[in-house]
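pasting input
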Amino acid sequence: MGRLVMKFGGTSVADIDRIRNVARHVEREVKAGHQVAVVVSAMAGTTDRLVGWCRDAAPVHDAREYDAVVASGEQVTAGLLAITLQDIGIPARSWSGWQIPIRTDGVHGAARIAEIDAKELRKRMEQGQVAVIAGFQGLGPDKRVTTLGRGGSDTSAVAVAAALEARCDIYTDVDGVYTTDPRIVSKARKLSRISYEEMLEQASLGAKVLQTRSVELAMVYKVPLQVRSSFDPPDSLDQDRADGTGPGTLVCDEDEIVEQHVVSGIAYSRDEAKVSIRKVKDRPGVSASIFGPLAEADISVDMIVQNVSADGETANITFTLARKDLRKALEVLNRVKDKVGFLELTHSEDVAKVSVVGIGMRSHAGVAARMFKALADKGINIQAITTSEIKVSVLIDEAYTELAVRALHAAYGLEAAN
Amino acid sequence: MGRLVMKFGGTSVADIDRIRNVARHVEREVKAGHQVAVVVSAMAGTTDRLVGWCRDAAPVHDAREYDAVVASGEQVTAGLLAITLQDIGIPARSWSGWQIPIRTDGVHGAARIAEIDAKELRKRMEQGQVAVIAGFQGLGPDKRVTTLGRGGSDTSAVAVAAALEARCDIYTDVDGVYTTDPRIVSKARKLSRISYEEMLEQASLGAKVLQTRSVELAMVYKVPLQVRSSFDPPDSLDQDRADGTGPGTLVCDEDEIVEQHVVSGIAYSRDEAKVSIRKVKDRPGVSASIFGPLAEADISVDMIVQNVSADGETANITFTLARKDLRKALEVLNRVKDKVGFLELTHSEDVAKVSVVGIGMRSHAGVAARMFKALADKGINIQAITTSEIKVSVLIDEAYTELAVRALHAAYGLEAAN
């Protein structure tokens, strides 16, 4: 019962047959008595085609026009799903971002949702009409269409759920959140529940199930988020489980997780690059002279390691960043070389980040130590470390990624747990 | 100088290279000092694909959702052309129907434009920004996207030109309006000018250069309309001709046509079907009992021929209609058979309509007579006739279409005239 937002990604709506399958999932929830809003992505391949056209038209192009072009993909899916729902007797209506409207800021191509006026949606949902909403888009202050950036449909769904005070089910091509990537560890276990904080770390650390911003938003607005598979037969998901969880993984407040594990998952990312600056003159303000220009160039730096050299007068600074930003970062640093004063710049793309995540870490000592030991046992060298309250990440040689993930999954007993 | 609306159809914007070609046409007009708005169709093939998806989703579907899906095609082209224009240094901005807005009535799938608020467009055009407008669409009273029906981009262009008090150039894949279809008569001659009335008849009678409603609208608002080719090299169209006409065909008020011809063109349409109702009881109100139900079923009837039978008590009624409506018409008539009282219903799709058009007919007698003689000379039987002030149409066996067109083109000396 109650209000429910269902979100379906590009592969779940890739063709009319799959859209029909989505309609059956929606039908099930409507028949269960829910007031339903559905958020859809563009049909798989559509956004890439539209982006390709924009690039062909001009390699560097106006983000406003890019948004106008690219947002069309989701509008098509929304209309087609509305037609399909009506065809099986379910009242439905499609909504583009500007129609609701979903108001965003003016950062075209990567807009953030500012406000959703859900009055009309609520009214119609109460009357039994399913609202089919084009994800990934909104209306900017300039009255032009904005898009939220790749993967933004998850964010749309959570924002709509927040505005409707609804639960949010994210349908994807996997059936939940696992302790780690099942392609690497065949015994990876599906979690029935995971906390917002852990999911957020997982998403930022490379797990691709949910988009980081959507989890942030869910956490802030306490939107119960469920990850489940759109490829399961629509009828088999009829009933919630006896333990109160659904068939997928529920992302929720940690208070709602009865049986907490110290570590809930192992994440990894190959999207890393490492830059080392050798023999930097060690003086006050030197870090700012390096990281200031990088920030100005919109480059996010992740791990930072600083060692004083043997001579005591210079330092070596190593940091990591997203692989796509490497070239730009090197340009920026070479430009400020004289001002900063350093001897040498080296870089590597053969690195990966492997992370252990778990809210139980807060109250359990020895999590990091166990990680370092497990890696050492396999002869894996740690190049850098960062930690937060609920995660430990290490940078390693990329070739050891799978080995490290398997060793850590075993070391924390993740496959054995129930 | 002054304001100019340029319209480009689907084949003119079929891919990025062609869109770039369109941008060069626009550049030429901007450099000539015009304030330019461009109206674009969807890239060739796009609308068919979108329509196909709607049909696959449900053979009978909500016109509102059809509109939401199908209107996306023009939005994509508008964004891509804006990007391409900006890339060659011309300020440009895309506009969807709802953004301007182009207000229409609520007849989804075949809406009529009610009002265009061109204030913002005017302002920006005065500032030198080219407005790239998605054709074929508007915003209905229900705040939902409407479409104007196939070929509606011509209508969009004329309506925008009327609102901007601008000239309207329709770029297409032919370089103007011809005395008849050059694929049938190789010596068909391009007209430098044609009156609104003649163009309207031509369009209704099967010539595919311009959409009927766009010509109607141009006539009402006195929008000078020029038909020209988008495949000519953009630079070669630089100058208007010495006689004041452009490189294509100007559709204008008849007062502006100095050298008037009695007949300006021969049109034909194979999109015809014929229905004969035999032995209808001849009593008052019988016509209404036949054509009333057809009108209610939204079927337009064209030519009607009624003969009293030999018995003096019954009549035979023959009429023509669009081929696509034939099946529905037969259903309607069979349903009312008992009420109307007739013996037999026969039909044929092997018919074509050939028409002679010219404003000179008003003041010249003998136009129809010459037509009938030319056809008789070739042994072509006339099955039905309709006339208006400026056209004579005949229904013939479809197999004789080309022969009839060639005979009439020669009979009125259309190829010889200058």
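fyi The two ends of chain A are 29 Å apart (CA to CA).
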